[in-house]
């Protein structure tokens, strides 16, 4: 198993940016052109989600088919045009078709991924479904185990967490980065509704950060989702929490594309031509 860009290399780059006061930006990318442009824009991490396929189809963020199989198949297109940026795979630990987690992770490394994030995550579910999965040793338990095994394999790790207790649990497993997830992203043509206010999102984010840091003061903390859609909103989050960066998916690969294409086609349409009689 040879990791394309090693965990130590990724962490060194991240720490250097943090020391320089630059935010860490993870760009959700589901197509080569998006990943190529994200790298040119300075993304620190290219993050690949199976759900990104639904965004490219013009749909709300949705699961499509076997998540891990989809994500494994997405790597070649992106790595073909990415020169020097780590590509991080969204890995579903709760995949019952492959119970050997080390074998699962090895598959992702072999196709070219340099790190993992727990996505899809059981943390996005509340109540009975999550309790049921956890009760049979799957669910969040598997996500914790996946991070623990990835660390033993020296693979770079990020964990989405929705709750302070989950942040503590991930920190105890040695996860490199905790990303406070405050819900589906608003904005654009198919953005999520009924989201937290920016102030509420900042408070929730900080509670997750403080929980993770209570276990590991040096853990890298990032933000994601909900009302955090634009660079201006990340600025608010940076000013009101202790996060040092942001992972964007809809905010990077969907909303900017929607705006750019609508505006560009509209500009083409508004150019006059000579009138011709039919």
Describe it for me?
Helix content is 47%, strand content 14%. Helix 6 (128-135) crosses helix 7, helix 8 runs parallel beside helix 9 (198-215) and helix 9 (198-215) packs across helix 10 (231-240). The longest helix is centred in the last third of the chain and has 20 residues, at 250-269. An eight-stranded parallel beta sheet has the order 7-6-5-4-3-2-1-8. 44% of the residues are buried. The termini are far apart. The protein has helices at residues 7-19, 32-40, 52-56, 67-79, 101-111, 128-135, 139-152, 164-172, 198-215, 231-240, 250-269; strands spanning 24-28, 45-48, 87-91, 115-118, 156-161, 177-181, 220-224, 245-248. It has one domain (7-269): Aldolase class I (TIM Barrel, Alpha-Beta Barrel). By secondary structure, the protein is α/β, with parallel strands linked by helices.
Determine and state the CATH class.
Alpha Beta
Overall body shape: globular
Largest sheet: 8 strands, parallel
What is the CATH architecture term?
Alpha-Beta Barrel
> What is the subunit arrangement here?
single chain
Radius of gyration: 19 Å
**Total count of helical runs of at least 4 residues:** 11
Broad structural category: alpha/beta
End-to-end CA span: 67 Å
What is the number of E strands?
8
For the record, the count of structural domains works out to 1
CATH superfamily descriptor: Aldolase class I
The largest sheet has its strands arranged as 7-6-5-4-3-2-1-8
Task: Indicate the percent of residues in helices.
Answer: 40-55%
The average pLDDT value, as a whole number, equals 95
User: Which series of helices and strands comes N to C?
Assistant: HEHEHHEHEHHEHEHEHEH
Low-confidence stretches: none
CATH topology name: TIM Barrel
Strand content: 5-15%
